[in-house]
Amino acid sequence: MLKLIQNPVLILTVIGIIGLLIRIYYFPYEIPLTHDA
Fold it and tell me: How far is C-alpha 20 from the chain's CA centre?
């Protein structure tokens, strides 16, 4: 676990992927991507 803490790029990448998956999972499909911002 200490090796993961010493590699912030890997941690940020994993957090970003998890956040993106959660966002895609909860994103309503009726809204077009242009209204995403």
Answer: 3
